[in-house]
Design the sequence.
């Protein structure tokens, strides 16, 4: 296939189908911001965190593009359309059935590393929520080694619920939609902070402001709207969960103890 622009690509890129497809791309990039979850464990985070994010995001982008280039070069696109196990299909087509099985095993091992990374980062977020809000104080409990065991167990049970209750595709669309909504408001918060002039000494200044966050907000909003239109069940369940979360926040919100 041709990797150069062709006639009709513009219509495709601005179509609803392409917008929904970006949900899967966003999922592939999930984790680029995970370093922010462990900011308290970084040395000199004001200097090092932007470096980590730029290098991490750039590396993930390069690897993602190279992987897709490899897949599209090694197998006809017709046999990849609508398939989830693309890596296995490509290896099977290019190198034979045994290679496909080996690739499946390698991908399974890679997923284990992803689980390990999320087990480290995710519970830290829940732990901080427990520290800030009395309603969720149980999540802040740590063992004698400082590991947030309550948050890890809760996250594990939630993952099992997703596995047992729906298909991989539905969970992927739902979780990516919720992540998209959250990042939409997080980036929108940059404008709110600037408008309210909440400047913090030594804080990171947003790159290419206001153009970079505006581009991100436009693409994300466009994607979310089309997900709601084409996958309403997953989208509206995500909206309902966020609304419930907002209500719980209103009920349980309290300021952290003063350190003065």
Sequence:
């Amino acid at each position: 296939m041709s990797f150069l622009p062709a006639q009709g690509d513009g219509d495709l890129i601005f179509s609803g189908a392409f917008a929904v497809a970006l949900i899967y791309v966003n999922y592939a990039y999930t984790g680029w911001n995970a370093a922010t979850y462990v900011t308290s464990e970084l040395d000199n985070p004001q200097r090092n965190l932007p470096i980590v994010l730029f290098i991490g995001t750039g590396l993930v982008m390069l690897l993602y593009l190279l992987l897709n280039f490899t897949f599209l070069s090694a197998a006809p696109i017709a046999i990849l359309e609508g398939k989830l196990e693309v890596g296995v299909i490509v290896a099977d087509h290019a190198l034979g059935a045994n290679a496909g099985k080996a690739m499946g095993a390698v991908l399974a091992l890679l997923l284990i590393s992803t689980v390990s990374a999320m087990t480290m980062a995710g519970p830290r977020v829940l732990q901080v929520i427990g520290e800030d809000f009395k309603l969720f104080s149980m999540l802040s409990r740590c063992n004698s080694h400082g590991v947030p065991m309550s948050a890890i167990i809760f996250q594990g049970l939630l993952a099992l619920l997703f596995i047992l209750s729906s298909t991989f595709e539905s969970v992927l669309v739902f979780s990516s939609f919720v992540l998209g909504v959250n990042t939409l408001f997080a980036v929108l918060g940059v404008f709110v902070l600037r408008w309210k002039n909440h400047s913090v000494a030594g804080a990171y200044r947003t790159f290419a402001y206001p153009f970079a966050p505006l581009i991100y907000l436009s693409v994300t909003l466009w994607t979310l709207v089309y997900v709601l239109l084409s996958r309403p069940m997953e989208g509206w369940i995500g909206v309902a969960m966020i609304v419930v979360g907002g209500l719980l926040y209103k009920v349980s919100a309290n300021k952290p103890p003063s350190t003065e």
In short: The mean pLDDT is 80. The two ends are 64 Å apart (CA to CA). Residues 177 and 224 are 7 Å apart (CA to CA).
